[in-house]
Amino acid sequence: MALRLADLxxxxxxxxxxxxxxxxxxxxxxxxxxxxxxxxxxxxLKQYLPADYEEALAILLNILGPxxxxxxxxxxxxxxxxxVAFFVEKYGLDYFDLSFxxxxxxxxxxxxxxxxxxxxxxxxxxxxxxxxxxxxxxNPHIRRLVSEGTRPRLPxxxxxxxxxxxxxxxxxxxxxxxxxxxxxxxxxxxxHINDLxxxxxAAVLEWMEQYVSNKENIxxxxxxxxxxxxxxxxxEHAVELLHKAEQKGEPT
Length: 252
Fold this sequence. Notes:
Strand content: under 5%
Order of helices and strands: HHHHHHHHHHHHHHH
Structural class: mainly alpha
Helix content: 55-70%
Distance between the termini: 42 Å
Shape: elongated
Number of strands: 0
Largest sheet: none
Number of helices: 15
């Protein structure tokens, strides 16, 4: 990972000391787990890139490569960009708008679902303004980021409270994605709903009651997956709502 980043950075930043960078990383990463190795690479990038965050970020964005046109591969083809996303997470909070532009570009190749959580904790209202636009973005990776990045129980991330401690704020965002045509986005929405059923099941069921009653084209698969914990626990209201959704059929 470090060597690949070094090979990409060097042409865009001639002052970059490729071999010193790689040696510095190797001296610190032995026997560390993946997350810790990523942090070492990120901190070493900070030492070897320009001190000015805007300059450093511009260099990193220049090495991102082509956009991921598939709905997979962000942790395989784009794995080497993990330190770039963490760089934005760790060092970019004082450059909010610039960092959001960076996360937007990173997400089209890898993901910013972990990085963006630091920004949510810092200024949720400012984040929500971006999310309002990203919900309608043509790129499914960006739409997915709205759902995945705000999940309270995102795997491999610290647990985060619902937006403004009210699951209805999360559901407001998710409702715009309930009939998304991308299965990649659908899966994230369902997982997010399942997270919320563990936070406040009553609020989720109330919201879903209104949603199912007022909508015609309903993706019942999202509801079934999103209610999986409630259904497993034999929650009668959840089972009833799923049945109603299935009767309305799948969107074309």
